[in-house]
Amino acid sequence: MNRYLSAFILAMLSGLGIHAQQMLKAPRLVVNITIDQLRTDYIERFAALYGTGGFKKLFSEGKVYKQASYSFSPLDRSSAVAALSTGTSPLYNGIVANNWLNRNSLKIESSVDDVKYHTSPSFIATTTLADELKIASAGSALVYSVAKERDVAVLSVGHAADGALWLDEKTKKWRTSDYYPLSIQKWIKAFNSLLGGKQETKDNDNVAHLALECLDGNAIGRDEITDYLAITLSASNEVAQQEKNGFEGVYIGLDRVLTRLIQHIENKIGRDKVLFVLTSTGYDTENAIDYSKYKIPTGTFYINRTASLLNMFLSAVYG
Fold this sequence. Notes:
two-stranded antiparallel sheet
């Protein structure tokens, strides 16, 4: 029986249920691998350069949903990940963008900002797939996520997760939030100490390394209760700029990382006890354009400066 599910965009949500019904037993572990800005045309373009354990294995042994699409526009990282994790649009899940304007403070806030915890999934207005797994298992299922970006890590799993892990932009160390249990806070602190500041050269390799350490260190997939591990990799322009061969290097690297993840998890959990799901965020970031080069009027609108000027004007006029 096939134990791989290759899907794009929202097919993971409906496809997971269909595939699970065909199994005699529920898998011990569901590994949801989301690749930010993954392009199917590039997957096919560089296919001859892949090994047999990554993309090719997922496609040949899995079930592919080709007609999936997002029901809203525009897409960005947070709104896409939230749609994947909740199975619904921003109209219902509340995650409309990476950032938005706080009407009370007139400041820009992130989709995962939180006054009490600094970071939390409090803006998600619905349950996620991982939340429903927690509910169905009466809290026994283990739920973790690993990503480079803070918003992706949090939005991938939702409210009831045992931990969301991401790379701090300032310290370049892995971290989590006080919102999550103390056990994962202590674990990631110990992991950083053992790592000693050493990182692998590429972000996707770092994410994969932490994901596998999280799997081994937190007893994920060890019993008959289905656990959930969300892993987010990247195929963005930013990643391509770090590669000597551009996107060719990105997709060869992704194939290598997928092979590493699949082999380790299958060896640890058992080939017939794990379900892999591959999805994409379904959008591309545009390269920055210098409009002044073409004599086109341009500039940046700063809401905080505008608010200050407006307050000064109102004070001068009305006291």
